[in-house]
Amino acid sequence: MINYSEKDGQLIFKVRVVPRASRSEIVGEHDGVLRVRIAAPPVDGAANEELVRLLARAFEVSRSDVEISGGQASKLKQIRVNGIRPEMLLAFGLVK
Questions:
Q1: Deepest in the core among 5, 14, 69, 85, taking most CB within 10 A?
Q2: Contact indicator for 11, 80 with CB cutoff of 8 Å
Q3: pTM above the 0.85 mark?
Q4: Are residues 76 and 16 in contact, defined by beta-carbon separation less than 8 angstroms?
């Protein structure tokens, strides 16, 4: 189950990123965080940009609604998404 919180209309959760994967995709849950593979390398913010694009597409929100609020240079990142509810994570089978 993904650990998350809600604050000021935002859903906040953590993501563990695996850079330089063969393709970008949401893998699932591992140790309470969302696990995501990113095809981009972790150079000059390319992996972070790809992560934001992937999450925005998956949650059907604009890229400006997805923010990396912590861990910009780390594999473990804190994400804030405007305009979604916990049920969106449930749709991916990630929370119970």
A1: 14
A2: yes
A3: yes
A4: yes
| Phi, psi at 24, each rounded to 5° | -85, 130
Q: Strand (E) positions, 1-96?
A: 4-7, 10-18, 25-30, 33-37, 66-70, 76-82
CA 48 vs CA 20, 64, 65: distances in Å:
12, 13, 14
Look at residue 43 and tell me whether its pLDDT is greater than 70.
yes
Hunting for tokens 């609020």 — which residue is that? 69
Q: ∠29-30-36 over CA atoms, to 5°?
A: 60
> Strand 33-37 relative to strand 10-18: parallel, antiparallel, unpaired?
parallel
C-alpha span between 88 and 92 (Å, rounded): 7
The token duo for 37 is: 């593979």
